[in-house]
């Protein structure tokens, strides 16, 4: 099976046009409780670095002190519960949401994910949001075509156990492509199935692959929090107005390029800070 490969040449123009910060979108990244805020902070920094005009972290009141001591350009808003989120989303300039990294699996987290989905906003759903959706069919039914789901292998198997079982341990890329397409068609959302070969499928069957092999090899990405950064890059691109499949494809390419640019010793917080060099190189 031949499949479009994501290359630099295929990326949309990621340059920032003129305008003020609100013209470049506002991302809300939801965070979990104390001791678990690192993942959401990684995502928020990545969203800002990829060019979103504003990024706000929605934090539980118990984590406010922890987060406020570690963010500067990223803003902070207390979100006790889904009621607070509904009130915050009255601001229509908050045009992209990121839920999952470090969110937790408790009632607050599930209520927040439900509110994110009911808002109809463009959103990226990762990590704990995917586990919550796997557990609750009522959340799954709320998925829509402005959602990007970014499962790793474990999350994919939780969300789509029958599709994953049908693949078994087959390492063939064609098998992963078929699985990702089936998953996207089932949930009516973009699915980005992570790994050395990352496959991105839309509900209409449109599909592309990025293989981090050969001169695109990036083994340094196998580090805690790398996926949280990818979710943030997607969130930032959604806020800037890129359509979900384009945001997912461009983010995948940028993410691997950041790892290649940094090389050995990479940890997740390095990724957002390499983005400016990668974006500058892309524009030249
Ligand atoms: N700095 C921070 O704050 C960080 C915070 N983080 C936050 O932690 C939370 C939990 O997220 P999580 O992904 O670590 O855990 P979980 O949902 O239990 O899934 C892991 C299990 O799935 C399986 N598995 C199968 N294939 C797999 C694959 N390709 N890649 C990975 N796993 C794979 C594997 O099972 P195994 O194959 O070993 O049986 C494994 O045991 C979440 O909120 C996240 O945002 C992290 O991002 C780290 C940095
Ligand atoms: N060996 C590898 N080569 C290329 N990319 C990798 C490799 N290992 C992991 N990645 C990428 O790194 C990211 C890891 O995400 P994830 O598993 O969600 O980690 P975390 O939950 O710690 O953030 C994914 O984008 C995945 O595609």
UniProtKB/TrEMBL annotation:
- Record carries keyword NAD: yes
Where does this protein hold AMP? Answer: 194-198, 227
Keyword Mitochondrion attached: no
Q: Which GO terms describe its molecular function?
A: ADP-dependent NAD(P)H-hydrate dehydratase activity; ATP binding; NAD(P)HX epimerase activity
Pfam family name, one: Carb_kinase
Indicate the segments annotated as coiled coil, or none if absent.
none
- Report quaternary structure and partners: Homotetramer.
Name it. ADP-dependent (S)-NAD(P)H-hydrate dehydratase
Q: Which organism is it from?
A: Pseudosulfitobacter pseudonitzschiae
Taxonomic path = Bacteria, Pseudomonadati, Pseudomonadota, Alphaproteobacteria, Rhodobacterales
């Amino acid at each position: 099976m031949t499949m479009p490969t994501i290359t630099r040449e295929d990326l949309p123009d990621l340059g920032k046009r003129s305008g003020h910060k609100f013209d470049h979108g506002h991302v809300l990244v939801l965070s979990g409780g104390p001791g678990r805020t690192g993942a959401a902070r990684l995502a928020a920094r990545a969203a800002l670095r990829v060019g979103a005009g504003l990024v706000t972290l929605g934090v539980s009141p118990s984590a406010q002190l922890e987060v406020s001591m570690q963010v500067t350009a990223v803003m902070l808003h207390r979100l006790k519960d889904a009621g607070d989120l509904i009130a915050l989303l009255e601001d229509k300039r908050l045009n992209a949401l990121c839920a999952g990294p470090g969110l937790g699996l408790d009632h607050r987290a599930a209520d927040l994910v439900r509110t994110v989905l009911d808002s109809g906003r463009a959103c990226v759903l990762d990590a704990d949001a995917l586990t919550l959706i796997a557990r609750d069919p009522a959340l799954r039914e709320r998925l829509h075509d402005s959602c990007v789901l970014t499962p790793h292998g474990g999350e994919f198997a939780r969300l789509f156990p029958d599709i994953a079982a049908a693949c078994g341990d087959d390492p063939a890329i064609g098998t992963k492509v078929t699985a990702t397409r089936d998953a996207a068609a089932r949930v009516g959302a973009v699915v980005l199935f992570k790994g050395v070969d990352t496959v991105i499928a839309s509900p209409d069957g449109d599909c592309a692959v990025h293989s981090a092999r050969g001169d695109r090899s990036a083994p340094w990405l196998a580090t805690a929090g790398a996926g949280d950064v990818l979710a943030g890059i997607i969130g930032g691109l959604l806020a800037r107005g890129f359509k979900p499949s384009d945001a997912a494809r461009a983010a995948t390419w940028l993410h691997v390029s950041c790892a290649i640019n940094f090389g050995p010793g990479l940890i997740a917080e390095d990724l957002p800070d390499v983005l400016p060099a990668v974006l500058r190189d892309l524009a030249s």
